[in-house]
Amino acid sequence: MPKVSDDRLAARRREILDGARHCFAEYGYDGATVKRIEESTGLSRGAIFHHFRDKEALFLALAHEDAERMADVAAEQGLVQVMRDMLARPQDFDWLGTRLEIARKLRTDTSFRTAWLAHSADVEAATLRRLERGRQAGRLRDDVDTEVLVKYLDLVLDGLITRLASGQPTDDLHAVLDLVEESVRVER
After folding, report:
1. How far apart are CA 166 and CA 162, in angstroms?
2. Using CA atoms, how far apart are residues 158 and 152, in angstroms rounded to an integer?
3. Confidence of residue 168 (pLDDT cuts 50, 70, 90)
């Protein structure tokens, strides 16, 4: 039997993740049945689960990818920039609907909650590091603990995601993000 190259395995894994992301975004976690994931990826159950232990492992792999991508932007440009990107290019964030599923699963599934919290810690750590750098540079207010600011920004992010995922209007949200950004900066 010929050996499959690492490049081909990585490409197949990417196909699965891309198709599954679309499926989870469209149907939610529970609605993204294995049959629908097969249809969305164009691959068989065996091909999908050769790369991922089960549906939850596939979902967590997507969540981890999203957390890493957000952490990269948050580390370089700040969490508010992540939110601005969501407003500017919602089509690049088709996973937003799945964030609502994540919130539901966090409440009801202990093992999922443990795995998710480990993944989301990356974004929080990147945001905290960026805020600490901003504080050291004198750009960030120093009358509020940086961990409180991280939680504040995280709450704003959750609200934005909920609004976008539920299809609510976003016309005035750029001004809201300006206000959020101003609220964490030192007054000049």
Report:
1. 6
2. 10
3. confident
Q: In the numeric block, which tokens belong to residue 90?
A: 């919602």
Neighbours of 134 (CB within 10 A): 18
pLDDT per residue as tens digits for the range 172-184: 899 999 999 999 8
Q: Which amino acid is at 61?
A: A
Are 52 and 61 spatial neighbours (Cβ–Cβ below 8 Å)?
A: yes
The band of 51, judged by pLDDT with boundaries at 50, 70 and 90, is very high
b vs e for 39-74, b when ≥16 Cβ sit within 10 Å of the residue's Cβ?
Answer: ebbebeeeebbebbeebeebbbbbbbebbebbbebb
The residue type at 186: V
Total-model pTM: 0.74
pLDDT in tens, 102-118: 777 888 888 888 877 87
Beta bridge partners of 185: 140
Helices 79-88 and 110-136: crossing angle in degrees, nearest 10, is: 110
- What sign has the CA pseudo-torsion 69, 92, 176, 106? negative
Distance CA 36, CA 33 (A): 5
Angle at 93 between CA 185 and CA 149, to 5 degrees: 25
Q: Which residue has the tokens 């750098």?
A: 133
Instruction: Specify whether the backbone of 96 is left (phi greater than 0), alpha (psi in -120 to 50) or beta.
Output: alpha
The C-alpha atoms of residue 155 and residue 37 are separated, in whole angstroms, by 31
